[in-house]
Each structure stands twice: as C-alpha cells, then as structure tokens.
Amino acid sequence: MSTSSQPPLKITHILETCIYCTSLSASKDFYSNTLGLTPDFSTDRMCVYPLGSTTLLLFQLGKTGEDIIMNNTDDKPERERLVVPRHGPTEDLIPGLLERKEGGGLRQHFCLAVKDKDEAMEWEKYFNEKDVKVIGRMEWQRGGYSVYFEDPDGHCGEIASRGIWGHY
Q: Which fold has domain 16-160?
C-alpha cells in the first residue's frame, strides 16, 4: 500500500460520459440518425458511441442497478474478482424520472465539440430544420459559441466550438 499523499499518475481526460435513457431505442435513433454518431456496439442495456478519445454511453434507465460479475468463482480472493459496479439512479428514484413533467426529469448535461463557431451555428440551423428543440445559445468571452438542445429524454445537450474554456 502506498503511503504517498500524491496521486500515483496524472489523469489525462474523461474517457466516458454516460446518459440514462427512458427509451434506449428512441435515444439510439436520435444519436445515430439525428446527430450522425456511429455506435461501436449496442445491447438492450446500453449503446456505445466512440467520439475521438472519449466515449458516449447511453444506458437504459433501470438496467444498471445491479453489479455485473464477470468470470468469478468463490475460490478467488475478493481483490481478484472482476466486477462492473452498479451505477445510475436507484430503483426508488426511477418512477419519478419516468414522469416527464415540464422541466422535470433527470436532465443530464453533456457537451459535444466542433471546430469553430461556424460549425456550431450550422448545427443550430440543422436542429431547427429537424425540429430538435433548441433551448439556448451562448457566445463565450474567449470567442466560443454554444448551442443547447434537448434529446428525447429532455437531457441538455450542447454543441460547442473552441473558445469556451482556456484549454478548448
């Protein structure tokens, strides 16, 4: 066991972002056909979209509440067992999240990157043509531009150009 008070290595970036969906098939249709993303693989539990060095995961709400135990036997010590731990809203919260009241629900936020302001503005125009609900836009001090939209579950998506953060 390390006695160092410093993290062992530098973390380089977020590898995965996940979104919980009330209808995985409707969300897959939106992310694949409206946003033009190509899934790496898909099951009834999840859909995986590679995006550069990151990954967007769509999970069916209610299907991530149990650990996924992989290839384990009782004779293995606990530290050697392979487990993907449960995550997402607990079962008692799910009924409330399924009720789509105006402004209610989980409303997770995520941001997808584009090269420049012109590309972000093209997405805004495209969303309007496709009847995707545009819920906001922002011009940032560093020159970046964002357009915010709703996905089928009411999550707050953002398409943003360079210039919203010091590092992007």
A: 2,3-Dihydroxybiphenyl 1,2-Dioxygenase; domain 1 (3.10.180)
119-144 average pLDDT score: 97
Distances in whole angstroms, Cα of residue 145 to Cα of each of 44, 45, 120, 129, 130 = 35, 34, 7, 19, 20
Q: 101: pLDDT confidence band, cut at 50, 70 and 90?
A: low
pLDDT tens string 51-61: 999 999 999 99
Reduced to 3 states, what is the DSSP secondary structure of residue 108?
coil
In the chain, domain spans: 16-160
Whether 95 and 116 have beta carbons less than 8 Å apart is answered as no
Whether the CB-CB separation of 164 and 144 falls below 8 Å is answered with yes
Q: Confidence class of residue 2 from pLDDT cuts 50, 70 and 90?
A: low
